[in-house]
Structures are given as C-alpha cells and as structure tokens.
Automatic annotation (TrEMBL):
Gene Ontology cellular component list: nucleoplasm; protein phosphatase 4 complex
Record-linked Pfam families: EVH1_PP4R3, PP4R3
Protein name stated in the entry: Serine/threonine-protein phosphatase 4 regulatory subunit 3
Protein species of origin: Acanthochromis polyacanthus (spiny chromis)
Function description: Regulatory subunit of serine/threonine-protein phosphatase 4.
Start and end residues of each Serine/threonine-protein phosphatase 4 regulatory subunit 3-like central domain: 143-633
Length: 820
C-alpha cells in the first residue's frame, strides 16, 4: 500500500505571485553525491520521474505553515512549497530539515532572513531577544511604536514575530480591544489598529492561524475598523454578521469543509476590503496571506469534488422542474462560485475538475438554466458556460453536435446562446459582446482537433452552417430588405456590427462553408445596405466585410460581385461622403487601391466599364486613374496577344550574362549534343522595347558568317559525339519575308526553361543549360534560328542604343524561327 504520509504536491511561485502546481509525488530525504549533501527528493507518483531535487542548505530559511506546508526559497526569485497530504509526513520531513540545520523542530522557521549590512546584523544579533511591553492600556502607544520601528528590519521583524507568538500576545491584545471598545477609548482603538496591521505585515503563518481562528477573527476585523485616518469607524463586523449570509444550497455534511469555507470567505474579505491597499514596499509583505487563501481554495475545491453525493444532489436539483426559481438562483450562483474557485487550480487539476462536472451533466443543466426568464440566473449561467468554453471548446462542440440529432434547432444550446446575444437588453450590449466572443472561440478552426478517424473542423462547421447560421444572420437579413436599414438605432447597429464581426471572422477562416452561404443567400448585397447607415462604425463594418472577401482574390467571389454589381453601394457611399477626409473615405479608397496594386483583372475591368464616369473626376489620389491605366493595358493585351507574350519574354530576360570569349563559348556550345539542350532558354537582348527589323536581323547575319567558319570544327566534334553513343545535334536555319509574326514554344524535343543563361554544357557532361535562343514561327511554315551569345558586346551596345525603352511588336516584314 502506498505511504500516504509522504504524498506531497510540489508548488513554485510564479512572477504573478501565484503558486503553480508542478505535480504530485512522494517525498524522501537522503544523501546525494552530486549535490554533496542531504537533499529532498520528490518522485512523481504517475511515472516515477524526478519532480524535485533540492539540497538542504544550512543557511536556507525553511518555514512550516498550517501543519502541512513547508515553504522555502531556492534563489532570490524562486520560491518552493511542499503541500503534504498528512501532518505526520510534514512533521517527519521538517524534523529532517531541522536536523541538518541543527535547529529545534518545534520552531516554524529555521533561519532569519537577513539582508542588512554586516555591522547592523552584528549589532542586532549581539542584542538580546525583543522584549515586548506589558499588554496594558497605558502601554499600547509604546507597543505601536515598537511594531512600527521593527517592520523595516527583517531581523527585528522576525524577533518581533517570535515574541508575539511565544507570549500568546494576540489573544491579550484582543481582550484589550474589547475593553477599549466598551470604554469607547478611541485613542487606544487607534493604537490597536496600527498594532494589528503591523502584525499582518510580519507575514507569518503561525500568527495568521491564531488571528483567523473562529474565536479571534471577528475581533481582529473589529480592530481594523478603527483606522485613525477615518473620521468614523467602518462597520465590517456588522456586514459579515448581518448582511453577508452563508447559505447551504446543498447541505454540507463535513464540518471541516464548512469551517474552511467560512474562514476563507472572511480572510478574503480582510484582504480585499479591510486591509488598506498595500504600498509597493508592503506588497510582498502580505505574500503569506495570499498563499493562505490560495491553499484554502484548493482544499475546498478538492473536498467538494470528492463528495459525489453533494455534486449529484446539486445537478439533480438544478435540472428538476419542481425546483423553485429562488432555489435554482442560489444553486446557479453556487456553481458559478465553484467554477471561479477552480481557476486557482493548476492545469492537470482543472482538467479533472471539469471532467467531473461534464460527467455530472453540466451542459444539459446549463441548457435548462439558459431557457429561464430570470436575467440574473441567465447571466450566471453565461459565466459558467464561458469557463467551459475557455477550458475545452471541443467538449462543448461534441455536446451540441450530439444534441442536434435528438432536438429541434430552436432548443439547441448554441442557438440559445445566439438568441441571448441577439436579445440582450443592455444598451451597451455587454452580455452580447461576451457571448459573441464565446461563439468565435467555438467556430475557430485553430482550436479544433483532427484525428485519424474524423476531422472536428469539417463536422462542426457543417453542423453550424446547417443548424445555426440562419439564426445568427436573421437580424441582418431582417434589417436589410430595402435600400436602407429598416432600423438604424444605436442598439440595433451595435448588434449588427457584432454579427458582421463574426461573419468577417468566418470569411477569413471557413473558406468554402461561408462562401457557399454568402453566394447562395446573397449575404454581401444585404451587408452593403448597411453602408447607408447613419452610424459610421456600422458602415465601416460592412466595408471591412467586403474588403476581406476581395482580399481572398477568389474568382467565385469576384464573379458574384460583378454579376450583382455590388460595387454600386460602395461607390454611392463614397460619393455621398463627398470631400470629407475621414475613415470612410480612406477605407473605400484603400479597397480600390488593393484591386489596382494586386491587379485583380476581372474586378478592374468591371469597375472601369461600369463606374468610370462616376470616378473620373477624383484626382486627389491616383487610385482610379491607375485602375483606368490597368484596364487599358489589359485591353491592349487582349487586342494584341502577341504583344503580351513578347513583353513577358522581355521582362524575364533583362539580365546580362557573364562575359566569355566568343570562340570558347561557341566551341563549347557546338560540342554539346541534343541531350544537353533540353533546358534551352528564350533570350532577347536586354531592352525595354523590341528592335527594328534591321537590328533584329543583323546578329543573325553575323551568326551565319561565323557558322561557316566553324563547319570543319563541327564535323570533328560531331564525330566524337557519335563515338560516345549519343545523338548529334542538328539545326536548320532559314528565313521568311512573311507579314504575320507570332511567338510559340519550340517542339517538345527541346524545352525552353528559364535556366542559367550563358552556362552551356561541355562534351561528356550531363544535361545542362544550352545557349539562349529566341523563337519566332512564321505563317509560311519556314524555320529560322537566332542564337544570342553573352559576349557579343558590340551587338548588345548597338541594340541598347537603338531600342532603349521601347516595346513595339516585331516588324511585320521579318520572321525567324529556330527548330531542333
């Protein structure tokens, strides 16, 4: 059987001064050779891995709290805590620590935390222990001064804490408080306020346990009512005893649990309401108080979670139709508080907590509660639902999909959430904003799971668009039946803006589901009706929705926009805005600028052909003139497709190649067989415009002359190639005087891919880039070839001088084509 005495949880204090649970395991102590000393070891109970290995240093201050906690600091900003399941285990490890440090196990702290200078420390240590004045009315002022003077010094603070603890001083002070209150001794009460506040700042668990005991806590709160800075005392005790009532919505049978709940509530009240807001210097002095509350909450949640009868009764009464509204209200508020407490748990413990609630049927219970008329109950249920969605959206999605197989769309949980969002009575729509955020989390594909058997994204989105989307879009469709919104009040506009925000999110993340919905239901046309709203924020939401659609550059969307002339309401809004330079003006111009910059051809043509007359006078930006220019360029290309093809060739080959000697390059090129030519590349001289026919033909003539000079060499090389078992390259060169020219790709035997210009292959090597060629097919069917070499410097200079910044089509009188 496992030794539960040694069972512990390991905690570390994070930057937000909150305790992080590092895991549950079993603690032991022993000598560790690597650390050269006795150490604390905690091994995880799940897999035996090492959760903690900490050497017990002789100078480290270890502190025992609440009989089951040991807390210490490993470094300046690294605090650790061991929370034991049983007090016996805590005592056993504490004795071991005290044995290593040579301390008496009866103490609650093993070292004094000192950060003073050596001289001050020597003076303090050489002085005897702190002696408290007698606990009498006439000595309260002296005691208040002693407490105030001790707080700045860690060593004096520790001595004061030990003196107060050892002499049972707190109970004596509280007896004096009752005397002062009976005598209405205001001065004595003010001194007691300063003394009790100072004791809180001593930050010592042993003192807190005395102060927060049932017999002392109300008197401690009474002392803190008499703040000298206030003209009248506070009435905290009156609030706690008369106004704040503890209600057991489900009877709690465990007296320890009930006492722990009372104590935690009162200590939380002291921290939040009674104690003054700590200064920057005092904040860390209350860290033990934070820890006290934190560990109490963890214990409460654990004890309630383990009480199966309690949770079973809770959910049974929540879903019972016979339960009256007041009782259900209390049950829901309890469940909300229970979930809020769970936020103190660490991830693995929170997993277990929500799994327990899920097994108990929390989602069906919420469905019943959300159907109630009580606004407060629905608000509490919404908060509980938000905890569940934030913790595990997949669990909620799985529930609503299973539910849809049994129930009508109207009573689905997710549709109830949408209806509450739509029907929010708050003028600022605070609840609707919260619910919209939850819906967004539920439909976000980023947190959806994909397994081998099924994809949650596909299943849930199909469900959502089939069963829920019509409910979400109903207010939008109902309000946009005319050319202007039917209702244009502030609250309706806010609601429509929320719905548009969610739809815009869907456009970005849901691809074909939302595309089918928008096109089939004509959603964009309805949305653009809202550009006529008197509320600028709503008109901008509509524009943002359209802008997201255009930003996808999806031709299905583009055809839908053009077919329904959906730029018309946008241009109307632009013209109605007039010359005002505002967000509306900028948003619309940015939309058209995007179409121009991204060169969305279909939309460019549609805008210019249908709306140019309305936009041609806008000259304070060049967007619309730029669109017209784009359109004209498109038309020019359509009218003369050869020009467009030639321009694309020119654009791709405007870079010079590395220079080589003419003889070397020609020799290497003619030595390359057909296998090396499969990556041939179309190249023209680097210029912006095509050359005149003389410029084009001159290099061909020169090439023919060179070729004749190389005939003998070619035969020798071809002979060598034949010996290597490869095919010989063959070229035909001829010219035509036809009047029509068009560019075409060469035959499949020699592909022209943009490769590395000017890097021809060499004999005996594998396939490499061949010299660059340009190909022209003539109507007469004759074939001509042009080869351009990178070292033809003279030719390139002539061509650049004659043809700089031109892009005219080839002259109709000359044609050439290369075929291999």
């Amino acid at each position: 059987m496992t030794d539960t005495r040694r069972r512990v949880k390991v905690y570390t204090l994070n930057e937000d001064r909150q305790w992080d649970d590092r895991g549950t395991g079993h603690v032991s102590s022993g000598y560790v050779e690597r650390l050269k000393g006795t150490s604390l070891l905690v091994r995880a109970e799940s897999d035996g891995s090492l959760l903690l290995e900490s050497k017990i240093n002789p100078n480290t201050a270890y502190q025992k709290q609440q009989d089951t906690l040991i807390v210490w600091s490993e470094a300046e900003n690294y605090d650790l805590a061991l929370s034991f399941q049983e007090k016996a285990g805590c005592d056993e490890i504490w004795e071991k620590i005290c044995q290593v440090q040579g301390k008496d196990p009866s103490v609650d702290i093993t070292q004094d935390v000192v950060d003073e200078s050596e001289e001050e420390r020597f003076d303090e240590m050489s002085s005897p222990g702190l002696e408290l004045p007698p606990c009498e009315l006439n000595r309260l002022e002296d005691l208040a001064e002693l407490v105030a003077s001790s707080l700045p010094s860690p060593l004096r603070r520790e001595k004061l804490a030990l003196a107060v603890e050892n002499e049972g001083y707190i109970r004596k002070l509280l007896e004096l408080f009752r005397v002062c209150e009976d005598l209405e001794n205001r001065e004595g009460l003010h001194h007691l306020y300063e003394i009790i506040k100072g004791i809180f700042l001593l930050n010592r668990t042993a003192l807190f346990e005395v102060m927060f005991s049932d017999e002392c806590i109300m008197d401690v709160i009474g002392c803190l009512e008499f703040d000298p800075a206030l003209p009248q005392p506070r009435r905290h005790r009156e609030f706690l005893t008369k106004t704040a009532r503890f209600k057991e919505v489900i009877p709690i049978s465990d007296p320890e649990l009930r006492q722990k709940i009372h104590q935690t509530y009162r200590v939380q009240y002291i921290q939040d309401m009674v104690l003054p807001t700590p200064s920057v210097f005092e904040e860390n002095m209350l860290s033990t108080l934070h820890s006290f509350i934190f560990f109490n909450k963890v214990e409460i949640v654990g004890m309630l979670q383990d009480d199966e009868k309690f949770l079973t009764d809770l959910f049974a009464q929540l879903t019972d139709e016979a339960t009256d509204d007041d009782k259900r209200h209390e049950l829901v508020n309890f469940l909300k508080e229970f979930c809020a407490f769970s936020q103190t748990l660490q991830p693995q413990n929170r997993d277990a907590f929500f799994k327990t609630l899920s097994n108990m049927g929390i989602l069906p219970a919420l469905e019943v509660i959300l159907g109630m008329d009580d606004v407060q109950v629905r608000g509490a249920a919404t908060d509980i639902f938000s905890y569940l969605v934030e913790y595990n959206p997949s669990m909620v999605r799985e529930f609503v999909m299973q539910e849809s197989q049994q129930n009508d769309d109207d009573i689905l949980l997710i549709n109830l959430i949408i209806e509450h969002m739509i029907c929010d009575t708050d003028p600022e729509l605070g609840g609707a904003v919260q619910l919209m955020g939850l819906l967004r989390t539920l439909v976000d594909p980023e947190n959806m799971l994909a397994t081998a058997n099924k994809t949650e994204k596909t299943e849930f989105l199909s469900f959502f668009y089939k069963h829920c989307m019509h409910v979400l879009s109903a207010p939008l469709l109902a309000n946009t039946t005319e050319e202007k919104p039917s209702k244009d009040d502030f609250q309706t506009s806010q609601l429509l803006a929320l719905i548009l925000e969610l739809l815009t999110f869907c456009v970005e993340h849901h691809t074909y589901h939302i595309k089918n919905y928008i096109i089939n239901k004509d959603i964009l046309r309805r949305v653009l009706v809202l550009t006529a709203s008197q509320h600028a924020f709503l008109a901008l939401c509509a524009l943002r929705f359209m802008r997201r659609i255009i930003g996808l550059k999806d031709e299905f969307y583009n055809r839908y926009i053009m077919r329904n002339f959906l730029f018309e309401p946008v241009i109307k809004a632009f013209l109605n805005n007039g010359s005002r330079y505002n967000l509306m003006n900028s948003a619309i111009i940015e939309m058209f600028e995007y179409v121009r910059v991204e060169d969305v051809k279909s939309l460019t043509a549609h805008i210019v052909e249908n709306y140019w007359k309305a936009l041609e006078d806008v000259d304070y930006v060049q967007t619309f003139k730029g669109l017209k220019l784009r359109y004209e360029q498109q038309r020019e290309r359509q009218d003369n497709p050869k020009l467009d093809s030639m321009r694309s060739i020119l654009r791709n080959h405007r870079f010079r190649r590395d220079a080589r000697t003419l003889e070397d390059e020609e020799e290497m090129w003619f030595n390359t067989d057909e296998d090396d030519l499969e990556d041939g590349e179309a190249v023209v001289p680097p210029s912006d415009k095509m050359k005149s026919e003389e410029d084009l033909m001159e290099p061909i003539t020169k090439f023919m002359e060179r070729k004749k000079l190389k005939d003998t060499e070619e035969k020798e090389v071809l002979g060598k190639s034949s010996l290597s078992g490869r095919q010989n390259p063959s070229f035909k060169l001829s010219f035509s005087g036809s009047t029509k020219t068009s560019l075409s790709s060469p035959p499949s035997s020699a592909s022209l891919n943009p490769g590395s210009p000017g890097s021809p292959g060499s004999p005996g090597s594998g396939a490499r880039s061949s010299p660059s060629t340009t190909t022209v097919t003539t109507r007469g069917g004759l074939v001509g070839g042009l080869v351009d070499y990178p070292d033809d410097d003279d030719e390139e200079e002539e061509e650049e001088e004659d043809g700089e910044s031109k892009e005219d089509p080839l002259p109709p009188s000359k044609k050439s084509k290369l075929s291999s």
